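Amino Acid Chain and Its Fold in Token Form
===========================================
Scope: a single protein chain, as residues and as a discrete description of its fold.
Amino acid sequence: labelled as such and written in the usual single-letter residue code.
Position: the record begins directly beneath this header, with no further notes in between.
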Amino acid sequence: MVKIFIVDDDQSLQRLYGLILKEAGIEIIDIAINGKDAVEKYDNLKVKPDLILMDHRMPIKNGLDAMAEILKINNKEKIIFASADISVKQKALSLGACVFLDKPFKVQELLVTIQNITKELIIER
């Protein structure tokens, strides 16, 4: 089963992701509400996720900063960066995000992205 870590301050999106991903057979191993929370939780997770779904605009620490810190902990972590702010797309990809999703995105787009990353993980392992 694919394990995902959700980083988004929007509680309605957290619930929506939970419903969609559970239905698709994907396990959410944790949820963080801001970038600082994400880095702390990631560092303390005993079982690391297969991938992270990272929002950008969050209080305390944004997604770009959180992603950079997480990738310092584990430079092989797969991160799907999601934002309505298209101006951060190139920065997110250059910092190490494997995919950038423009918010709002379609459920199918997220699921296909997760499926593609999962295939890459299988090949890498």
Q: What stands out?
A: The radius of gyration is 13 Å. The first strand starts at residue 3 and ends at 7. The chain has one domain: 6-40+57-124. The mean pLDDT is 96.
